[in-house]
Amino acid sequence: MFSSLTQWIDSFLLRYMGENWALFVEFLLIGVSIMVAYAVLALILILVERKICAYFQCRLGPNRVGPWGLFQTAADMIKIVLKELIRINRADHFLFRLASFIVIVGSVCTFGALPFAKGLQVIDFNIGVFYLLAISSLGVVGILLAGWSSNSKYTMIGAMRSGAQLISYELSCGMSLLCIVVLSGTMQLSEIVEMQRDSWFIFQGHVPAVIAFIIYLIAGHAETNRGPFDLPEAESELTAGYHTEYSGIQFGFFYLAEYMNMFIIAAIAATMFLGGWQPLHISGWDTFNQVMDCIPSAIWFLGKTGFCIFLALWVRWSFPRLRIDQLLRLEWKILMPICLVNILLMALLVALRG
Amino acid sequence: MKKTNMEITEKYLSSLSFATLERRADGMLSVTVPKENLYEVAKFLRHECAEKYNFLFDLVGTDSDNKLGVIYYLSQSAQPEQMLALKTFTADREKPELFSVQDLWDSASVYEREVYDFFGIRFINHPDMRRIFLRADWNGFPLRKDYNADPAVNPVPEKSELISDMERMPSITLKMGERKEETSYVFEKDDYVVNFGPQHPAMHGVLHLRVALDGEIIKKIDPVFGYIHRGIEKMCEAYTYPQMLHLTDRLDYLSGTMNRHALCLCCENALQLEVSERAHYIRTIFDELTRIASHLLGWGCMCMDMGSITAFVYGMRDREKIMDIFEETAGGRLMANYATIGGVARDIHPNFQRRVKELIPYIRKMLKEHHMLFSNNPIARGRMAGIGFLSKEKAISLGATGPSGRASGWHNDLRKISPYAAYGKVNFDEVLRSEGLTYDRYVIRLDEIEQSLRIIEQLIDNIPEGAYAAKTKAVIKLPEGEFFQRVENARGQFGVHITSKGDKTPYRVKFRSPSLTLVGALKAIATESKVADLIMLGASLDYVIPCIDR
Q1: Under the phi-then-psi rule, with left for phi > 0, alpha for psi from -120 to 50, and beta for the rest, what region is B331?
Q2: What pLDDT is stored for residue B1 in this prediction?
Q3: pLDDT in tens, B24-36
Q4: Nearest Cβ partner of A324 from B309, B373, B532?
Q5: Measured between CB atoms, does A286 come within 8 Å of chain B?
Q6: Same domain, residue pair B122 and B242
């Protein structure tokens, strides 16, 4: 469905202009649609989180702007765009401004590589998994810069914590994905999804895949800097951590990136473990499989991602925050060793299967 | 046996040629000693007498008969019902100086700063003679009777105080007969000092903690007070007694009912006014409901400071039910403005008993949920495990009363020690724990809620008939003398001291804030721990800032 649409746009453009111009326009279109999708999804996510959090806390959540408060986040966005960008005394202004862009660029680039539905993927690298890991860790540079350039002690502590945290948890994150790479034998996201046509990797991979999935959820959750791993912004001691000094849309960038990182982490979990946009198939149940096929692939993808996001929200609104030493102990003494053993297990499994 | 110990102490004190003993109108033994002998007597009472007076309850600065002085209210952990007032005076109004007792009682170090701030009495050998509530550039000492309150003397400052002024600690030392005036600094030159507060999302008010950090580890804490200092004690000197009542609610706003109760009891005892049983019962129920509300909020705040915002909302939700009950009967919610001298402001609402009875099973059910959600959560347990140790001796010396002291095993519940109102008629346990760790201070509040429910359960159906308030004169004048009353509020022992000259306004009023000493306890327990725990440890002590600053 999506490939026919893109082909139609391609041939339509070629009719009126040269190949290079057509490519240029196509890139532009893709860029704009990714940005729009990014912003819209973030707004929806913020609303969803606020609603879900409200129900966890026996409150109503936003309910004044529009029916059921649906336009609340749109109104918030307008407000945040109109707000003044405060100039901080004795801050490093170039780095200060740059930091929020680095964070959002890292996040948008990761977002662009996700396979949203059948044929709906912007770039399909043959090293897709590697690309995701590499580009998503760009964000930590932005966070460190933000903390450093703000000339504030809170942001400095927040940034240092975040550096320690993100770099540590990236290891577990990467290694649990590596498990799936070992199982699938490819790093290309489209192939990984294709291979899960009959059975998702979480079922194919037996115990090691389940372990990897759980570890990925924990480490990925820590990557997003959200409770119980929200030490870099630990409201109770550091006011807002690394983005304390930001205002207006620059703060908005950090905020958007935080929500979208949550989406990205959940989307990667869905792609790598839960079959991406593939419907649920159980071998032997042909009618069931056909019914499942009727549900559009985008719905499957968003549904699985939504499930993972809900898990993250549930955790966030239930648990208190870890302390920095506990956080690092969890990673280096518990998750890391399990991950290493788990890769070995997965390799054994693959070897035994032949 | 207990009596004899007191008698021995009394005999010793009366054997001193320089000491004058008297029984005050409120029955307390009062000893007046010259300022030269004060330290020696204090040291005897602290370390050598039969029952050691190891708890310095409060320091009251006075300015009467043209002499500046201090009253030391002393108590002991072995016989907590015993209180002793130790007094001393100095006739020097230009450069009044007394010997410091801060090496005998840890709590004295803040109390003496407070006396200096309000009366200008400097304490020799106290290392930190900064003003505590007012700015360093304030002219005059406001609680002196010759204080010039003209706004021209202290105009509204247009510039904020320099942070370096907050760090300069003047002191006078007298060692081996050699007198030295020195200035030292709170922090070393290259300390990494972070300001927590006065505006900070987790500070629960406007407390300003200046913290020197070494990475994530706290090296030193310097609390700066006074951002919400309203001069309540000074205001009281211009107010009549019924007017004063309204200020007590605004000290520790979370236990306003209890604070007001203390002042009412103090005035009633001074007037020898008979209060009806009905009023006593109603006041007790209100006190306990306030305690439940306060503990629920304290619990929620502590959870929030550990990052669990949901728990905070749950605490607020349950507290709301109590506020609704208050609103129906008293009209006020957070500040019920309910107790008056002689009784309560109006009779209870017809729905009151029914709603309180509905509340009890509800809170019990919610307590179970709170334990499930938070107390048994592995992350929460991990956060609280093994940190914030406060020993019993330190708690007593610091004057960390209330749940925080009881978590260290210090029996200090005034509802048990000297039962007032209807507390003598009910069965309940004083919750004591022995470890003195953060988890103990956390869980003791939830356990105290259970005990408060027990108290309410026993009283609610048995409120006797009768007048809800005794008749008082239109203008209330306390007889001449010094009066003192203490009650257990949600944070610890709250004390009221009134010096009356027989007028319709008091001559001197002093409120003992349990929160002030708890900040001292924070200094003791948070040093060497991680900065992430600082706020949580503060919340585990559950201080309320307006009560500190008064």
Answers
A1: left
A2: 41
A3: 777 788 888 888 8
A4: B532
A5: no
A6: no
Q: Let me know if residue B338 belongs to a domain.
A: yes
Any chain B CB within 8 A of the CB of A333?
no
Structure ipTM over 0.95, yes or no: no
Q: Are B290 and B176 within one domain?
A: no
Pairwise CB contact (< 8 Å): B531 & A228? no
Give the position of tokens 């009777």. Answer: B145
CB hemisphere CA count around B61 (13 angstroms): 26
pTM above 0.90? no
Kindly state whether residue B381 falls inside one of the protein's structural domains. Answer: yes
Is the domain of B392 the same as that of B323? Answer: yes
Please, is A12 exposed, middle or buried when counting C-beta atoms within 10 Å of its C-beta (0-12, 13-18, 19+)?
A: exposed
Min Cα distance A263 → chain B (Å) is 22
CB-CB contact of B336 with B249 (8 Å): yes
What share of chain A in percent tops pLDDT 70?
A: 97
Is residue B39 located within the same domain as residue B135? yes
Whether B114 has a pLDDT exceeding 60, the answer reads: yes
Q: Which residues of B touch A318 (CB under 8 A)?
A: 308, 310, 373, 377
- Residue bearing tokens 């003044």: A84
Residue A1 has a pLDDT of 61
Local confidence band at A299 (pLDDT 50, 70, 90 cut-offs): confident
Contacts of B305 in chain A (CB under 8 A): 236
For B63-86, what is each residue's pLDDT tens digit?
A: 888 888 898 888 888 777 778 888
In the sheet that B122-124 helps form, which strands lie side by side, from edge to edge?
B97-99, B122-124, B168-175, B178-185
What is the tally of structural domains in chain B?
2
**Inter-chain residue contact B306 with A320, CB threshold 8 Å:** yes
Measured between alpha carbons, how far is A210 from A204 in angstroms, rounded to an integer? 10
Mean pLDDT of chain B: 85
- Residue B415 and residue B330 share a domain: yes
Q: What CATH number does residue B499 fall under? A: 1.10.645.10
Whether the per-residue pLDDT at B301 is higher than 60: the answer is yes
Partner-chain residue, chosen from A157, A317, A324, that has the shortest CB–CB distance to B310: A317
- Distance between CA atoms of residues A107 and A261, nearest Å: 6
The answer on B277 and B374 residing in a single domain is yes
* Residue B427's pLDDT band (cuts 50, 70, 90): confident
Q: Torsion-angle region of residue A206: left (phi > 0), alpha (psi -120 to 50) or beta? A: left
**Contacting residues of B for A237, CB less than 8 Å apart:** 196, 202, 531-532, 534-535
Chain A partners within 8 Å of B194 (Cβ): 153-154, 157
Is B189 a member of any domain?
no
CB contact under 8 A, B307 and A323: no
Q: Express each pLDDT in A40-85 by its tens digit.
A: 888 888 888 888 888 888 888 888 888 888 888 888 888 888 988 8
**pLDDT value at residue A236:** 62
Same-domain pairing of B126 and B66: yes
CATH of the domain at B60: 3.30.460.80
B176 & B236 share domain: no
A237 to B535: CB separation less than 8 angstroms, yes or no: yes
pLDDT digits (tens, 9 = 90+) for A242-276: 788 888 888 888 888 888 888 889 988 988 888 87
Asked whether residue B148 is assigned to any structural domain, the reply reads: yes
Q: With contacts defined as CB-CB under 8 Å, which chain A residues touch B377?
A: 318-320
pLDDT value, residue A337: 92
Structural domain harbouring B323: 232-549
Candidates A59, A157, A236; nearest CB to B307: A236
Alpha-carbon gap, residue B509 to B514, rounded angstroms: 16
CA distance B196 to chain A (A): 8
Neighbouring C-alpha atoms within 13 Å toward the C-beta of A299: 7
What does the alpha-carbon distance between residue A92 and residue A72 come to, in Å, rounded to a whole number? 34
